[in-house]
Amino acid sequence: MKSFLPFAMIAICVGSYYMYISPMWSDVDSLIAKKAEYENVLLKTKEIAQERDAAIASYNSIPQEDLDKLNKIVPETFNEAFVANTISSLAAKYGMSLSEFSANLPVTQERTDENSTDTTNDNKLYKTETIKLKLKGQFGQFTNFLNDLESSLHLMDIKNIVISANSGGKNPSDLNMEYDLDINTYSLK
Questions:
Q1: How far is CA 69 from CA 64, 72, 96, 109, in A?
Q2: Superfamily of domain covering 73-112+124-188
Q3: Strands, DSSP E only, in the chain?
Q4: What are the b/e assignments for 71-107, b being 16+ CB within 10 Å?
Q5: Is the per-residue pLDDT at 20 higher than 50?
Q6: Highest-confidence segment of 1-15, 19-33, 37-51, 117-131
Q7: Angle CA(76)–CA(159)–CA(68) in degrees, nearest 5?
Q8: Which residues contact residue 102 at a Cβ distance below 8 angstroms, ignoring those fewer than 6 apart?
Q9: How far apart are CA 101 and CA 95, in angstroms?
Q10: Mind listing the pLDDT tens digit for each residue in 69-108?
């Protein structure tokens, strides 16, 4: 019986290893792997928080004057009266008259992500407003008007220009022309 007892103890140890310790060890391994994943996620979260804080600090370091300029380039909302006044004052500066001004409904542009096929409403970055206007004046005045419009802070793209003779004059430089312009202007969402 003495010789049987050590073999029984070894058999009980081997059995308990396969029945209890081995399954628990695999659970411990999976928990160790999960812990490593969580630590990795926490590390990435801390890195993202640092990047966010750096971006906020960078944004807060921008002078208010520059933020005002950015808001003039692409305002938060489209202000039809402000744009009409700006264009009218530019035209008056060069002796031109603004005879028509109309703004159409906005066309919302969508951001395209090469990796995503999702085009939900959350991807809209800015609105495009189409402005139609009609000016009257001489060609030199019109080119000066366009140069000022180009160098103004408000972001505008001229889509279409139609030039037509308005009245006949004796001297070609005195000839008044009519200019129909289609302009895109932008505002944030």
A1: 9, 5, 27, 22
A2: Ribosomal protein S6/Translation elongation factor EF1B (3.30.70.60)
A3: 97-103, 107-110, 124-137, 156-167, 176-188
A4: eeebbeebeeeebbebbbebbeebebebeebebeeee
A5: yes
A6: 37-51
A7: 25
A8: 131, 132, 133
A9: 17
A10: 887 787 878 888 888 888 889 899 988 988 888 887 545 5
